[in-house]
Specification:
40% of the residues lie in helices and 16% in strands. The strands form four sheets. A seven-stranded mixed β-sheet has the order 2-10-9-8-5-3-4, with helices on both faces. With 385 residues, it is of the alpha/beta class. It folds into two domains: 236 residues, Aspartate Aminotransferase, domain 2 (3-Layer(aba) Sandwich); 101 residues, Aspartate Aminotransferase, domain 1 (Alpha-Beta Complex), CATH 3.90.1150. Helix 12 packs across helix 13. It is globular. The protein binds pyridoxal-5'-phosphate. Pyridoxal-5'-phosphate (PLP) binds next to loops.
Length: 385
Amino acid sequence: MYSQETIQSLNIKRNILLNPGPSTTTDTVKMAQVVPDICPREAEFAGMMKDLRQQLVQIVHGDLEKYTSVLFCGSGTMNIDVCLNSLLPKDKKALIINNGAYSTRAVEICEYYGLPHIDLRFPVNELPDLRIVEQTLEANPDIALVHTTHHETGTGLLNPIREIGALAHQYGAIFTVDTTSTYAMRPIHIEEDQIDFCMASAQKGLMAMTGLSFVVGNRAAIEQSRFYPKRSYYCNLYLQYDFFERTGEMHFTPPVQTIYATRQALKEYFAEGEQAKWARHTRVFEAIHEGLAVLGFKSYLPKEIQSGLVVSALYPDDPNWNFAKVHDYCYQRGFTIYPGKISTTNTFRLCALGAIDVQDIRDFFVVLEAALCANGIAVPVQYKE
Ligand SMILES: *Cc1c(COP(=O)(O)O)cnc(C)c1O
């Protein structure tokens, strides 16, 4: 561990990432990666991973007897892949409740593996109709797995996972939820939220580095999955779980330095506290809305269905509007903004992830306003209707 003084003396440039992850990290997390070389097969390293696995379960308030976490070396999409290919029994079907880009990704994973599935689509700017979800479960008794995305990061929409999970369980299916963009930000209670499996990667809510992803889920269901078809080698949940349980290690080479950073990030997570951290993200989110409103930007979704973490703003109807130019102006000044992910509407996104606070957002809006002026875009921005 480096001392505060040493870290400060390095004067690492602080960029404000308003993209939906990786997020802005603290210098202490960055520097936690700089460690003496170690072979990850040493007992010292395995001991560190044991604590880390438990803490990942504790973040979603899971009972350590009933829930466990399994780590993978990869980005967040790997977890969706792992859960879908590993947790579907033979001759059963997956139901994907799809109202956004990340659930569409889950559908694509089913397609790639040739998994029987139903792609139950809803508009990307609306909550899913739970009556249709129930009718689908009722009409298809072979559905063994229901999957959705907690927070559709492409729009900022928050799905009603507790209600969907209750329906899944009522019809005897397990419920897997992509919580990549809510985990360690919005408080989640795995059991009360009716989740069997959730997932994330270290570079989003945890504010650590890229390269470590993890699934938190029901131990008995993982053990049961041992008898399901093996559809992947590297991405099989049971195989990785079993190796961890027997040896305390990851089956294949772990992302060593990222794990050190994650350990430090977890320390900082628990020091800040779940409620205080969520309150900070909330005030950052409110400051984003406020700043956009002052400049006249409209947001894509009604606020009631937003996650509180991502704001999608509509492109103004101005002949001089040019996202790339506005982006570059901000980027050169240390602020990263991000394009939207909606095929039918032009949007850009500002996100409340990471080690940032309200003052960073205020500083950003000064720069954004200057970017608009520098490009001859009218302020407040204009829309046709
Ligand atoms: C970021 C994210 C992912 C993972 O994306 P990667 O590029 O693979 O890290 C998955 N689901 C959601 C909802 C996300 O926001």
